[in-house]
Design a protein that fits this description.
Layout (H helix, E strand, L loop, with lengths): L1 E2 L42 H12 L10 H6 L5 H23 L7 E5 L6 E4 L4 E5 H6 L2 H19 L11 H9 L14 H13 L8 H24 L7 E9 L4 H13 L3 E9 L4 E10 L1 H29 L7 H25 L10 H10 L4 E2 L9 H10 L27
Parallel strand pairs: 2-4
Antiparallel strand pairs: 1-8, 3-4, 5-7, 6-7
Amino acid sequence: MRSCQCGGAARSREEPDSRRGAGRQTRHRGGRGFQSHHERPCGRGGAGELFHRLHADLPPGAIGCVNSVAAESARGIDGELWTVWNRKLYHWWLHYNEEYLAGRLKTPLIELSPAVRTLGQWDRTHRRISVSVAHVRGDPWMAVMDTLRHEMAHQYVDEILEVNDETPHSAAFDRACHQLRCSPRASATQALGEEDERLLRVLKKVLSLAASPNEHEAQAAVEKARRLLLDYNADVVALDRERDFGNRCLGPIKGRRSSWELWLAMILNEFFFVEVLWARSYDALGDRDGTVLTVYGTATNLEMAEYVYAYLSQLIYRLWPQYVQRLGIQGNRERQGYFAGVLQGFHGKLTERERQSRSAGRELVWIGDSRLVEYYRYHNPRVVTRKTGGVVASDAFLDGVEEGRRVSIHPPVAAVTASGGLLAARGGGVK
């Protein structure tokens, strides 16, 4: 599994006055956008050095910089948590400055603001970055980090490039955004093409969550769904179609990961056309550091990966009570091993079916998307691959493996070919 810092697209923002950087506006939270997800500070010298530098570099009185109006807007947030959030913003600012800008920026004043519509703002006159406390409280931490990096880009234009006579979102600003791995566009929402929209409608129709897993119909469904996606992605890459990439967080932020979660990430990476990363993140309301599964890909593939993640995560919890009742097991001691076994079995069956299809000449050969890999590496210049020790092969684990070989997704994709013939078998293949 990989772990690293990662970057991504920016949110929308509003035009500023002549003395300030562009504020970033909120958008409808139900909208589907490309969100970016970044690791907590872990750059050169490690977290200990950053913590030392944090206190050495901060402006006097910066930590806990709270005004009474902002405090009023954060009802229910105690002073200690407020101070922690402000400190976190400095930590991550230092991390991005080191990782992407080689430490060229001088530490500004960073404060939480009472703004609701404006997520963040750079004020060049007072050398101040403000971030909405409502943003921190109500949005994923990595969305907050998008805002922080966006305002850092404005700071970079003013203080490093020294371009003060252009519009806020100029060529110089584009350059700064490239350095900081954030989008200069006014909105991070990616428009889907007509074919992508149609494909997503088909997938959402035929791959709805089942009330209970059906071993045979479900397996047929996931195999056909993957073939549909394989045909789609093979055409996109072979024709080198224009495509946008984004990233998305799946699941909760946790301090430790179970083996079944690693198997699930592997399934997404190997069979559903996304790159994956266990990225460091932060649960602001719970004041907890941890990791979150981040997937990278096109909008279509991100939608499918999110669906499969949700389905398999729920599936193993539905299978466990049936297994307990069947064997008369007491307690949940074997549950994690069983979960890992189910997903390892599922992974093994997908691998075997793919091998059989290739041997029979019925399967396209997926060699990857070099542009996606380039996008992934651009956002994650330092990637660490770690091996895990696996799980003990208990009876529950082995039973889970067997169960996983019988598990798949319901309902079947029986009528997909009527939507455009994307499931038609092809001879030869793309190599």
